[in-house]
Amino acid sequence: AAVAAEARFISSAKGKGLFATKNIRKGETVFVERPVVSSQFLWNALYNYRACDHCLRALETAEENAQRLLGKSSLVLPYPEQCSIRKDLHQQCPRCQVTYCSAECKQAALEQYHQVLCLGPSRDDPTHPLNKLQEAWRNMHYPPETSSIMLMARMVATIKQAKDKEWWIKAFSQFCNKTANEEEEIVHKLLGDKFKGQLELLRLLFTEALYDEHLSRWFTPEGFRSLFALVGTNGQGIGTSSLSQWVHACDALDLPMLQREELDAFIDQLYKDIEKESGEFLNCEGSGLYVLQSCCNHSCIPNAETSFPENNFLLHLTALEDIEAGEEICISYLDCCQRERSRHSRNKILRENYLFTCSCPKCLAQADDADVTSDEEEEGEGETDDAELEDEMTDV
């Protein structure tokens, strides 16, 4: 599909931005983008959120998905034909048994990075360097997850396998880079107080598992920190769910009023019961690097939003308003609740997690507001941690 936007350099302070190349109507898709690289989160995979190892498509049927999230194997979903999962197409890597949603994904993974990362018969061997790396990462980065060391591993593996290594190095270098101080802040945010010791341990394990002389800089303390910060700043949350796909399909059914009311009530109750059992963790989750999407700047009144309506890693950017040719396209890095808070609170979150202060029209209009948080915000202030930052993009 044609892309209705292009990246342009704005200033050294702001870096790049994304601009409309034609008039875009509200509700229109600005573009659909495939990530340069992506990976499921490690705890998410460990807890049996089964997703295609390449494109993150959910692999369970909607019914299996709902049964697992509810902890109730007797649950039966009505309208099972509305589930889009095709188990007959699923394939496994013959050597290490990771599962793909299709032959195409298996092949794409093999061609891009899986030859290097395939664990073969060592899949369950805790002493294998890649398993040691993953275990160390899980012990440092508990749910809610915001990043994965395997995204970095896939970047290295991609370059190791590539015939044209320079092309890939250039592809990764176009993602926003930070200064040493900023990098340190981002890494600190991802790893918490013990970050210096943890980062060094990760670097040693990463080197043991993946060292490559073409990329020797990435394995030095500075280079590894830069790589880490690049993924921390540019990584876009991806969420997929066969249950939410089934719900969307059911919403589109043309049903008599009584059946419609019954179905809606069933779905509402199902989500309430699932929340009691599994909390907010409904989706298969991971993160990816998207060239165009990573150029989108933040606004507290965004004119576009990202979503994953195809139940895989294909990111859709959709206009929330009419956007004129030449206008900047902005998304929000904050979720709906955070956007309703005072300018002071919003900027506190943005500074801590993305290292900038917002100057969107909403923030400029509120510039004279007192720099204090209102009472009810004060109570919630301590909660602005990673949980809220599970970028709203992971809502399917």
UniProtKB/TrEMBL annotation:
Keyword rRNA-binding carried by entry: no
Signal peptide boundaries: none
UniProt keyword annotations, A-Z: Cytoplasm, Metal-binding, Methyltransferase, S-adenosyl-L-methionine, Transferase, Zinc, Zinc-finger
One MF term in the entry's GO annotations: histone H4K20 trimethyltransferase activity
Recorded superkingdom: Eukaryota
GO cellular component: cytoplasm
Record localization: Cytoplasm
Protein name: Protein-lysine N-trimethyltransferase SMYD5
Organism expressing this protein natively: Uria aalge (Common mure)
